[in-house]
Amino acid sequence: MSGNDQNLVASISLDGANGYGDVDTDDISIKSFTDSDVSSSEEETPKVNYLLSDTMLSSSSNLKSFQNHLIFSKRIIALVGAGLSASSGLPTFRGSGGMWRNYDAIDLATPEAFRANPSLVWQFYSARRSAALKARPNAGHYSLAELARIKNGDFLTLTQNVDGLSLRANHPSETLLDLHGNLFEVRCTGFLCNYTQMVFKQPLVPALADNDFPLISADIDDATVSTVDNKGYIDEKIKNIPLKELPICPKCKKDLLRPGIVWFGEPLPLKVIDTADNFLVQEKVDLILVIGTSCSVWPAAGYVDRVKSKGGKVAVFNIEADKEDVEHDGGWVFKGDAAKWLPIALEPVIGRNFIPRRCR
Ligand code: BV8
Prior knowledge:
By secondary structure, the protein is of the alpha/beta class. It is 28% helix and 19% strand. The chain is built from 12 helices and 14 strands. A hairpin with a 7-residue loop joins β7 (181-188) and β8 (196-198). The protein is globular. It starts with 6 loop residues before the first strand and ends in a 10-residue tail after the last helix. The relative contact order is 0.20. Residues 1-50 and 217-234 have low confidence and may be disordered. The structure holds ligand BV8. The site of ligand BV8 has 34 residues, from α3 and β13.
């Protein structure tokens, strides 16, 4: 950020506050700083300075009304999507730079695709396992995990992400539901074998080593991206790995392992659905945080309307959000990077003593 950039900084005074929720939202003042004003000293000054870009600032008028609702919300759900992990360097699916933008999901994330070309599908998921292991949780993951810790049983995160970053940000596991599975779970495809295991060893087999499956990330332009046609992957980067060199079940020693992912056309785990349904029907949910998701996959997307239909409010944190419909319903839209917005927006409840220095 160049020195002459006029950046606006939310300066949140924590004077006397223990940083856990007794910050009066009126303390939040937005004022104009140049870089030199932004405290970067390691010893924490009582003020926490966050950089608000102009785009983010345009949403700051909502900030206080959202924070008042947040403080008085008893029960909260967070519906999380790939956008929360974008700042950790993991590509999304549909937004700009998204993976599905140039691949046809049905060629990579369905049981049929796996049956037709397990070598291709395993290379796709193995590359994502490697990327997720190299990634680090960002301030958005830590903020959400802190809110979950403080709200305890009155909070539930429904994550569509399979990267495991929320758990690595110390999100309490009992209030974190993996709607679409987890990259590090493997399952036997054998009908009679029930082998299921979390395996972080990477690569799972030698044949999946140095797998440079071209995951789409923001810095790869369209020209270098090959597309998948339904006759099979045409990119020279993809190997044709023989079945016997793909991950085989260590228990039955004969059937292929598959990623523990919910593919299109597969039902979400019953236990996950039941837990989410019970949370929703027990008592009114006052607020749903819709974080970094295009809400284009069902039944996950349906939770937003289910909260709204019972009088709950919606707050969207999205880099490409259009404000009209949400704000029309009395909700809030925070346009920008969820990793930047969440620590600011959740501040009155979560304080700020939990974000590791590297994420500040
Ligand atoms: C099922 C695999 C039934 C894992 C995924 C109605 C009801 C029920 C089902 C359906 C229905 N209509 C259609 C269906 C079928 C289907 C479906 O939803 N199709 C869609 C395409 C229309 N649903 C299913 O098949 C589901 N199964 O319903 O089964 C059944 C019942 C009984 C018996 C048999 C069958 C299964 C759905 C799970 C599919 N698996 N992936 C993987 O490879 O990861 S879904 C895939 O999309 C991802 O896993 C991801 O979880 C999901 C959602 O994507 P997002 O996370 O939202 O990511 P996206 O890129 O789309 O958006 C990112 C957003 O972030 C953008 O808005 C962007 O602007 C924003 N952003 C970017 N950067 C930032 C940011 N925001 C903030 N900060 C940033 N820095």
